[in-house]
Amino acid sequence: MGRARSKSDLPTKICPVCQRPFTWRKKWQDCWDEVKYCSERCRRRRSEITGTRD
After folding, report:
1. Using 50, 70 and 90 to split pLDDT, how confident is the model at 52?
2. φ and ψ of 23, to 5 deg
3. How confident is the model at residue 54 (pLDDT cuts 50, 70, 90)?
4. Which domain holds residue 34?
5. What are residue 14's DSSP bridge partners?
6. Cα separation of 52 and 21, whole Å?
7. CB 3.0-4.6 Å disulfide test: which of 9, 24, 27, 46 passes with 5?
8. Rounded CA gap, 27 and 30, in Å?
9. Mean pLDDT over residues 48-54, rounded?
10. What total of structural domains would you count in the chain?
11. 7: which residues sit within 8 A by CB, 6+ positions away?
12. CA distance 4 to 26
C-alpha cells in the first residue's frame, strides 16, 4: 500500500467561472481530465459568464 499524498502535492485546476483554484478529489479520480468546474454552482453559472451553452 502506497503512502498518501499531502494536500500540497495534489493536482489543481483553475475554475473558468469563479477563477479560483480547486484541488483533485477522490470522487474525480476517474474523470479528472474532464472536470472543468469547481462546483455544481459554477457549472450551472457557466452560461451566464460565457453567454453560450456547452
Report:
1. low
2. -110, 150
3. low
4. 10-48
5. 21
6. 23
7. 9
8. 8
9. 60
10. 1
11. 23
12. 12
Q: Is residue 4 part of a domain?
A: no
Task: Please identify which residue in the block is written with the cell numbers 503512502.
Answer: 3
Residue 38 placed within a domain: yes
In terms of DSSP bridges, do strands 21-23 and 12-14 run parallel, antiparallel, or are they unpaired? antiparallel
Residues 20 and 34: their CA atoms lie apart, in Å, by: 17
pLDDT digits (tens, 9 = 90+) for 6-50: 777 899 999 999 999 999 999 999 999 999 999 999 999 987 765
pLDDT of residue 49: 67
Which triple of cell numbers denotes residue 6?
Answer: 499531502
Written as one letter, the residue type at 54 is D
